[in-house]
Task: structure prediction
Amino acid sequence: MAGLEIRDVTVRYGVPTGSTRGRGSTGVTAVDQVSLAVAPGEVVALLGPSGCGKSSLLRAVAGLEPLSGGQVLYDGEDLAGVPVHKRRFGLMFQEGQLFPHRDVRRNVAYGLETQDLSRAERDARVSALLDLVGLAGYEGRSVPTLSGGEQQRVALARALAPRPRLLLLDEPLSALDRQLRERLAGEVRAALVETGTTAVFVTHDHAEAAAVADRVGVMDRGRLLQVAAPDELRAAPASDRVAEFLGLHG
Ligand code: ADP
Ligand code: MG
Result:
């Protein structure tokens, strides 16, 4: 199958691997047998309250967290033996990922360092990426002079620079105020769609999930409760719990 396939993935913490004790299941099951497929070019949001296992699942997909069960596949290949840096996945987090002493150009260019480009090609690509995220002409700006929203746009441009086959975004807008967050969610979606980037976007905000994603997966206590297009979810939530997370209850 093309794209990302998450099969029955379980992530547990606090259970030493190879432990002979632990029959009484000490530790936390952060992700509990989650299955999800993301088609090429599709954007899926994972929505759920703090502590429900969103980051753990994302980290497991990235290869940053060992699986306690299940499989992660990309284009049909099981990634069990493939280290983080060889997965060709991009990562973007809430904040603090830019190099404060590099200007915007050199921050975005960092994402291109593994590619064999001439300086002119690199500069052209940086400018095109800045254009894509609405920051045309920002090349020479220093990071501390940027607003929070501008910094996240630069981080997005940098994450997209190497053309990752999958981009994993963990609450990338959560440090921003609500108004800005809603506008940026739409712009992030536009940038992902325009570049044809396959993506998984984690958030605890249902409006943001609906603005950014083709489909939204609702998570609760490590389980994936329902996955559907935002309209379908609102029209037919599978349970009261899902309805609650969508803000459909008082
Ligand atoms: P979310 O991103 O949805 O807020 P997390 O994946 O961060 O959820 O956490 C899911 C559960 O796993 C929580 O109970 C959290 O306390 C626990 N957890 C997360 N990371 C660790 C860790 N490194 N060690 C132990 N427990 C963890
Ligand atoms: Mg998290």
About this structure: Residues 100-163 form one domain. The two ends are 41 Å apart (CA to CA). Residues 178-194 form the longest helix (17 residues). The first strand starts at residue 4 and ends at 13.
